[in-house]
TrEMBL record:
Residues 7-185 form the SGNH hydrolase-type esterase domain. InterPro entries: SGNH_hydro, SGNH_hydro_sf. Pfam families: Lipase_GDSL_2. SUPFAM superfamilies: SGNH hydrolase (SSF52266). This is SGNH hydrolase-type esterase domain-containing protein. It comes from Actinoplanes campanulatus.
Amino acid sequence: MTGLYVALGDSMSIDDYAGGPGRGAASLLHRNHDRDFADWAGRDLPGWTLRPLARDGAVVADVLDRQLPQLTEVPDLVTVTMGGNDLMGAYGDDTAAAAVVGRVAAQGEGVLSRLRALTGPSCPIVVTTVYDPSDGTGEVGGSGLPPWPGGPRWVAALNGELAALAARHGALLADVHARFRGHGVTAGDPARAEPRPDGRDLWFCGVIEPNAWGAHQIRAAWWEALERRG
């Protein structure tokens, strides 16, 4: 079986923070890194082509206006990671966060509408919830950021909008937020820079980025969403 897999979105999808080429979430979904994840050998997309359009720092408007226009072929599978950078732009400001959640909902509607118009109803589109490195505390010590007690509530609101988008457009939902709970500040220091820490319970680096173990878990969440679809 062959097909075209397109990865849209932000740094949750890319290789940069997971240790280099082939180690990010989209790369692992496409081709497993057997040395790191031997139990996942064979759970990938042999013969498929990966087109990675996700970019570091991308906001939803970038997905809509810069990434989608690059799609010149009809994909057979799409994963989307978006919204986290939009919310980070409002860090610490509850009023601004409310506006961001509304904007993500509106722009995300454009993303999913255009994708469905391109792919038709049969293509699996996987929408990904946004994780919380504070593990619900609103604080990541060592990050240099002040506490934001309301932050986890706005992450939940954002994820509610992403889930609603997926439901309206017949997309799959990969609940990375739930999967990552307990693997941020509870497990170690998300602000550390190492992409491959010795302790595999910590899934973040650079505060908000997925390290190698986090990238694997995002891939696993996508795979499980696809398996639920059958």
